[in-house]
Amino acid sequence: xxxxxxxxxxxxxxxxxxxxxxxxxxxxxxxxxxxxxxxxxxxxxxxxxxxxxxxxxxxxxxxxxxxxxxxxxxxxxxxxxxxxxx
Length: 86
Fold this sequence. Notes:
Layout lengths: L1 E4 L4 E7 L2 E9 L5 E9 L5 E3 L7 H9 L21
Antiparallel strand pairs: 1-2, 2-3, 3-4, 4-5
């Protein structure tokens, strides 16, 4: 595991061959801990599966950027329009 941001605690670790977990812990009230995990799959066309809030995307992007063996650009998540209730 490599800590990529000491302030936030964001870290990256290879969990299986070619599959990386980017973990960002978040503070909560009391002694409750929580973290968001994103997954990066190395392939001919790499995939970043980002499941966290938009606010942590810069931390995820920076973590991926520190992996010099990957050659692809990470774009911010799409802003999808809100669906209107029926």
